């Protein structure tokens, strides 16, 4: 029993450091890369690959040397060009420190250009979800230029202008409604006066004023 326990102690260890261009300074992005690579490994090995900071680590017992070599080769291959792995929604929100509402708004108006869509199946469910992904170099450029604050200022100015226009429109509507009611009331008075005058003419025609 003791010998088997010692044999299962992780003795095979390999570490890969993710480049800054891959993680873009985001722990969420680093975790996303981990999940992406895990998905390419045999199911029995996936949980044996972990991450700490930007370092991916694969640890397996000495008795699994063959599986270790196979998994190590898959990981090394997967890391080739990892900087080009599309950025998914939760990652771009963390990288740029933006909200889901901002991401959706800026995607819709073109400030966040989409690099296409990706469809995944939810774990344990039959339903699939489709979402937009983003080109990592584009995201890096936005991060370097610090445009997010500029966009927020633009949005604030636009919101203020929209509120001003809405207030003016509401005021104009109230004014038109008031004028319409005043016109209607004036017309009623005119109609009443005309009716009274018509009665007066009949009164005079009948000779009652003579």
Q: Enumerate the strands of the largest sheet in spatial order, edge to edge or round the barrel.
A: 1-3-2
Which stretches are low in confidence, meaning pLDDT under 50 for 5 or more residues running? 1-6
Strand coverage percent: 5-15%
The second-level CATH architecture of the domain at 1-85 is 2-Layer Sandwich
Q: Residue share in helices?
A: 55-70%
Largest sheet: 3 strands, antiparallel
Write down the CATH topology of the domain at 1-85: Ribosomal Protein S8, Chain: A, domain 1
CATH class of the domain at 1-85 reads Alpha Beta
Overall mean pLDDT: 86
Coarse morphology:
elongated
Rg is 36 Å
Number of distinct helices: 8
Tally of DSSP β-strands: 5
Could you tell me how far the N terminus lies from the C terminus, measured between alpha carbons in angstroms? 136 Å
Structure notes:
The protein is α+β, with helices and mostly antiparallel strands. It has a domain at 1-85: Ribosomal Protein S8, Chain: A, domain 1 (2-Layer Sandwich), CATH 3.30.1370. It is built from eight helices and five strands; from the N terminus they run αβααββαααββαα. It has helices spanning 2-7, 20-23, 27-38, 65-78, 89-96, 100-108, 136-145, 147-205, and strands at residues 10-17, 49-52, 55-61, 117-121, 128-132. Mean pLDDT is 86; it is low at 1-6.
